[in-house]
Amino acid sequence: MTPPSPNPTNVPRPFLGVNFAACRVYGRLYKNREGTAYVGRCPRCGKLVQVPIGAHGTAQRFFIVDCGS
Ligand SMILES: [Zn+2]
């Protein structure tokens, strides 16, 4: 049985600051549960974007993502 509460030993969810290129707004992507990518939505158009976390992790601190269609 796995309790629904989050693991208290986990650090707070890391996030990545990104610039949504098409809308030219700043937002945050949060690490997914698997730790394989940062995912989030553009605050303006609501499009879901992902930044995959590579083998070396995300050394970059700031990303530009394209939320345009
Ligand atoms: Zn957008």
Bound small molecules, by name, code or SMILES, are:
zinc ion
In terms of DSSP E residues, the strand content is 35-45%
- Trace the largest sheet across and list its strands: 4-3-2-1-5
**Strand/helix succession:** EEEEE
Question: What's the helical proportion of residues?
Answer: under 10%
Q: What is the count of DSSP helices, taking H or I runs of 4+ residues?
A: 0
Shape: elongated
The biggest sheet amounts to: 5 strands, mixed
Strand segment tally:
5
Q: Which class best fits the helix and strand makeup? A: mainly beta
| Cα radius of gyration in angstroms | 14 Å
Average pLDDT: 83
Unreliable stretches (pLDDT < 50, length at least 5) are none
Assembly of the depicted chains = single chain
Q: How widely separated are the two ends?
A: 42 Å
